[in-house]
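Morning F.,

Quick status update on the modeling queue. The single chain you submitted on Monday has been processed. Sequence for confirmation:
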Amino acid sequence: MLEGAAGIGKTSLLDHAVAAAEGFNVLTARGVEFEAEFAFAGLHELLRPILPLIDRLPPLQAEALAGALQIAPVEHLDTYSVSVALLSLLAAAAEEQPVLQIVDDAHWLDNASAAALAFAVRRLDADAVATFVAMRDGHDSPLVAASQQRMRVTGLARPEARDLLERMAGTTVSATVADELREATAGNPLALSELGQGLSAGELAGRTPLPEQLAAGAAIEAAFARRVGTLSAGAEEALLVAAASDAGRMDTILCAAAASGLGEAAFLEAESAGLIAVDRGTLRFEHPLLRSFIYGRASAARRRAAHLALAGCAPEDQPERRAWHRAAAALAPDEGVAAELESAAHAFSRRSGHVAAARALERAASLTPGDDARARRLLAAAESAWNAGSPAWAAELLAEALPLVRDPLLRADIEFRQTTIEAWAGAPHAARERYVTLAARLAAEDVDRAAAALSYAAAMLVVGGSVAEAHTVAARAAELAATGTVSSRTNRIVDETFGVILLMQGETEHGRERVVRAARWFEDAEDLGGSQYAALALAWVERYDDARRLLEPLIARSRQQGNLRALAAGLEVLAEVEFRTGEWQRAYAAASESVRLAQETDQPVQLAYSAGVLAIVEAAQGREEAPTHAALARELGAERGLDMMAEYAGYALGLFELGRGSIGAALAQLETAAAFARRSGRGEPGVLQWGPDLVEAYLRDGRVDMAAQALDELESMARATNRKWALAASARCRALLAEEGAAAESAYGEAASLHTTLSAPFERARNELGFGAWLRRSRRRREARDVLRSALATFERLGARPWAQAAHRELEATGEVVARDGGPAGGVLASQELQVAVVVAKGATNREAASALFLSPKTIESHLSSAYRKLGVRSRTQLAAALAASSP
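Structure tokens below.
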């Protein structure tokens, strides 16, 4: 990315790159100020040379890209499906020939194109694709965060500045004058060029005083005014029509100019003056600043006349351009123009151009005569802004709409969306109160919306750690829903929310019944959005197969559709399920991918949960990144009012420090988690499984009374909920407390018996580690070796390095010589290498893996080669065997 002031030379550098790109397929696009309102306009220009390759894409991707570029009709596109398709198309082009992408004036590139391109360039790791982007200072774009290298383009140094002045003036320039001009313009090449041509020989030689206005902006503007001032009135009017045009299509511009009696001669005059150039039917200004200057210097009436003429000449297949020009020409509210803009917004939304849709609806609202109708369009604009990931903009639009409203149901819609934004923007406590107030007002006239509002309020209370209060609110929602006047969707929301809360409180039977009912609704309706919450609750109650039955189609469909937001959420919960059942490689791969997707799609709330889960997996494996991800989860939780993140971070850091033997640090973190759970009124031990760790940490710190108290709490919840993993862990902790004699052996045996019906290999191996150590201390070394070998094998398969080291030490203490294992196959792989290996090991081809993981086939090939090398395997079969050996 090249960044700098207007006229600083960014375009010249891009031109140099193109000239040097022998053998490259060069793709170019240039942002146009007025075209920023049209979704995917920039992408259409950029991809024109490689569009014939669209047939090589998977059908859904080809359909998405064709729909976005208006090559084919489309019903609806997910925001990221176009990004995924773009990635595949660029990768396909790079297989044939190296690709150079050039994007100039990226600050004016439409948001949809910029976001898609940002996604793609992040993931073209191993492909022959180079991308150069130029952007003006003081602007933002999705491409900024995606740029791997950023270079500031600064003004010319003294010798070069003087040389440029002399070349443009065709005469010698005094060194003193050159220095003065360079200082005044900060070495801006465009300003120096214009001054070199505009100043007299006496001024350049230092014989005549220089003008007062020498700053870069003033110099450029003065030069433009001088050059445009030499044109005839007709040529200047023709330039205004061109400046008002968004696409620069010469046929449209000529048609609009003809309405004012102007012909080709006017444009030929401007072209001869070097102000414009026409190439293959497209008009370009010599410099974007010239376009802005011409448009800005015209009166409002002349600008409106130009837009009206362009509206009459807009192509039939581009009604949104006609609508925008008519809107620019409007003097007063006009329902006809507003309706056209609204129709254009719907077209943008179908193609996932949510920023363009929001802008169109915002302008439509400003042209709408009635207050309620205007408010309704502002609400629609806010929905589009929300879908575009701009909650602050959405909030501004809603705040503008609310005072206009007379219709009570419309008011409720606006307030509902305001509250949702408030919740996701990091104010769950305030959002909770607003939901409750809204529900109270709506209960008599709109039971459906009132029940949903109360359920959302209850969810806010849960993340804030007030489960008992959440129960009261969710119960009220259930009472309203029981009247039978609510939609099936709201019934599902009520069941899912109330069921989760009941389970958290330890009311297993009623909670499970509601969650299972919600899960059945998801399956029957084939509407999986939000099903990850029900899946997580099913994991708490050890119904892991049921949880996977919800998650796997959600994840598969999200991958297929390019719905990265839903995918990040589904992967986070899948990581929890895989972690609990001992599939730690898959858990790590899923959590890592979830974190990356949440970062790339700008979802701070999702990122908090994803980072929290990843930190737990990493902590159990002793990975050094665990504290970083735990800190990220805690920090985002504090920023966003997600108090529960303190428990996630406490669990992860406590487990990490316990594995390292830092007992004091472990206790500090685990006590934080325990304190949050107690405050929230928790009765379900499986929400986060730190209970046994707290008991063990107290014991290893010599605080037996506190260990006994923590065990009583854990065991009480385990018996009340009949949670098998917690019963087994409680038995292990009792054995640790008993330490000596038959009571300890009996408790270890009880835990081992429970583990025969459990899929919790980490807990089973920890029981074996404790029992083996007890047998060794009891001088029963032969028995101890058998048990410790089993524990060591499980820890090594899981990649639980700290625990494997402890088992190794215990085995050596029995007198056995043990070779150190390198850990699980996946343990030596980087996160993305492991993600690739897991998918490929299931039988996917490189192209299928690329499609699933939103990477290019070349990147898959690169990661796979690295994985082969690290694991010492040579084929997919050997890779699958290596990973399978690591799965308990």
